[in-house]
Amino acid sequence: MKVIEHLQQRDGTLFSFEILPPLKGKDIHSIYAGIDPLMEFKPSFINVTYHREEVIYKERGQGLLQKIRLRKRPGTVGICAMIKAKYDVDTVPHLICGGFSREDTEDALIELSFLGIDNVLALRGDAVKNEPHFIPERDGHAHAEDLIRQIAGLNRGKYLYEEEQEASPTNLCIGAACYPEKHQEALNLGTDIAYLKRKVEAGADYLVTQMFFDNQRYFDFVERCRKEGIQVPIIPGLKPLTNFRHVAFIPKTFHIDLPDAYARELVKCATDDAVKALGIEWTVAQAKELLAHNVPSLHFYTMGKSEAVKAIASQLF
Ligand code: FAD
């Protein structure tokens, strides 16, 4: 079932979450371990992230370095198919522009369609580490908007080459990303929202936000989007901070602010356990306020760890 159908038929706020494929070399049991504890809250859909290749350098002796392109977390589509088969839950594979030509994209969409996957989250992806900015593949897409347009086209039966024009259309629900605190490269929130509107006009059925820790940022963002004519559901993304590593890298990596009240309590924490307890308390408070506003779904970023999300969900659902 499509995410947009879940949202249209909902009777109250839904529960959904995002997982990462395991690191190459780990088996599927780490995925079960992430999903099993959250099944009691009846997730409406589960997102699975996509990770493009990274460039790494291996020492080969005598001062020689070998440059290797490596995907550290393959398996997005396989995991989606497994979730549908094992848990009977709808899935949302993420699909990015980076590393994909338009033909690669078309083939990936055909594969999703054959697997009976009804959804896709269409993203640009970030620049490859140690490249200064995002570089699309030759004949690939430079922005999520163009990827969305290709998916929407395929949903109308528009394949890349003439001879396929009579072929069956796909029927994929399209999600896209949005940023209440603006995307890091955007000149300001206004231009970011103008481009966001173009993603919706290109065919995005709904949006999922970057994580945020201050609900007011989300409420203001949704209001501004509505004023600009963006009418699709905007799902809030939540992430509990559960250790000092999170505190160090999450605001920096995702370009988000922690509100003063939260930051004041965080600096008092002396252990990871204290950070985790505070993170759970903060996210529960955020989630309760969002539930009171009847948001479409509470979407949790698990980053492969479900314990804190379970502790939060058990206080909400
Ligand atoms: P775009 O919508 O293309 O926007 C990128 C930037 O370009 C923005 O600053 C925007 O204002 C600007 N822009 C947009 N359209 C245009 C245009 N037509 N012309 C000029 N400028 C434009 N990354 C992964 O690699 N894998 C994942 O699985 C993944 N999942 C994510 C899930 C969510 C919910 C979110 C919020 C992000 C996720 N990301 C993921 C990160 C995402 O790929 C990065 O944030 C990336 O830098 C931007 O992706 P986008 O789809 O928002 O890009």
Can you offer a commentary on this structure?
It contains 11 helices and 10 strands. By secondary structure, it is of the alpha/beta class. It has one domain: TIM Barrel (Alpha-Beta Barrel), CATH 3.20.20. Helix 4 links the parallel strand 5 and strand 6. The protein is globular. The two termini are 22 Å apart.
Task: Summarize the entry for a quick read.
Helix content is 39%, strand content 18%. It is α/β, with parallel strands linked by helices.
Task: Detail the topology: elements first, then pairings.
Blueprint: H1 3-8, E1 14-19, H2 29-35, E2 45-48, E3 54-59, E4 65-70, H3 76-87, E5 90-96, H4 102-114, E6 119-123, H5 144-155, E7 173-178, H6 189-202, E8 206-211, H7 215-227, E9 234-238, H8 244-254, H9 260-266, H10 272-292, E10 297-301, H11 307-313
Parallel strand pairs: 1-2, 1-10, 2-5, 5-6, 6-7, 7-8, 8-9, 9-10
Antiparallel strand pairs: 3-4
Helix pairs in contact: 4-5, 5-6, 10-11
This protein binds flavin-adenine dinucleotide (FAD).
**Per the principal axes of the C-alpha atoms, what is the gross shape?**
globular
Count of alpha/pi helices: 11
CATH C-level class = Alpha Beta
Distance between the termini: 22 Å
Give the bound compounds: flavin-adenine dinucleotide
What are the secondary-structure elements, in order, as H or E? HEHEEEHEHEHEHEHEHHHEH
Strand content: 15-25%
The assigned CATH architecture is Alpha-Beta Barrel
Radius of gyration: 20 Å
Q: How does the helix and strand content classify structurally?
A: alpha/beta
Enumerate the strands of the largest sheet in spatial order, edge to edge or round the barrel.
1-2-5-6-7-8-9-10
CATH topology: TIM Barrel
Describe the sheet with the most strands.
8 strands, parallel, barrel
